[in-house]
Write a structure and sequence with these properties.
single chain, about 170 residues, alpha+beta, 7-stranded mixed beta sheet, about 20% helix, globular
Length: about 170
């Protein structure tokens, strides 16, 4: 009986944690018609208007999709290819390590080095077919941090000139 109650307690804790951070509940490859339940801005996606081999990138504030993520200055990028979610990325120029803390608490610990203000590089946190990359890089004298989530089927559609900005 104790095991049953322990199982229920753990299950409810995990369930509550995942509802508070909806962006983690949308697997890569999810059809837009399903993902729109979490990312309402995807109602603007029109498959008919997208050229073949092009992806659409939508930007919004991460706090709107993850209440307990500790986000203030972080943006979420949702990239759609062929009417499916190709990537979910978090990007911040904020020096508060918002993306680092989210990654550490919700995904996997990138390590103490990655938390340092002047550290730059990438850390592969991938699991199976899911590609998860945490990184910090310098752009226009500002350190940005990012978390990129995609999979091996979609990774070729999330970078480059064939990714265009969508409108919310």
């Amino acid at each position: 009986m104790k095991k049953f109650f322990l199982f229920i307690l753990v299950y409810l804790t995990l369930l509550n944690n995942s509802f508070a951070c909806g962006l983690l509940n949308v697997p890569i490859g999810t059809p837009v018609s399903t993902a729109v339940q979490t990312f309402e801005f995807l109602t603007n996606y029109d498959a008919e208007s997208v050229e073949e081999d092009y992806s659409i990138k939508y930007l919004d504030y991460a706090i709107d999709y993850c209440e307990d993520g500790g986000f203030i200055e972080t943006e979420i990028e949702v990239i759609v290819f062929d009417s499916k979610i190709a990537a979910i990325n978090l990007v911040s120029s904020d020096e508060k390590n918002e993306v680092y803390n989210f990654t550490k608490n919700k995904i996997n610990d990138p390590g103490i080095e990655a938390q340092k203000k002047d550290w730059q590089g990438i850390i592969d946190l991938s699991v199976g077919d899911l590609i998860i990359i945490y990184g910090k890089y310098l752009k226009n004298n500002i350190i940005y941090e990012s978390l990129e989530i995609t999979n091996s089927d979609m990774r070729n559609y999330v970078y480059g000139e064939h990714v265009i900005e969508g409108t919310l």
